[in-house]
Amino acid sequence: MSRIGKLPVALPSGVTVAVEGRRLSVKGPNGSLERKLPPHVDVNIGDKEVTVTPHSGERNASAMHGLTRTLLNNMVAGVTQGFKKTLDIVGVGYRVEKKKDYLVFTLGYSHPIYYELPTGIKEQIESPTRITVSGADNEIVGRAAAEIRGFRPPEPYKGKGVKYTDEVIRRKEGKSGAR
Question: How many domains does the chain have?
Answer without folding.
Answer: 2
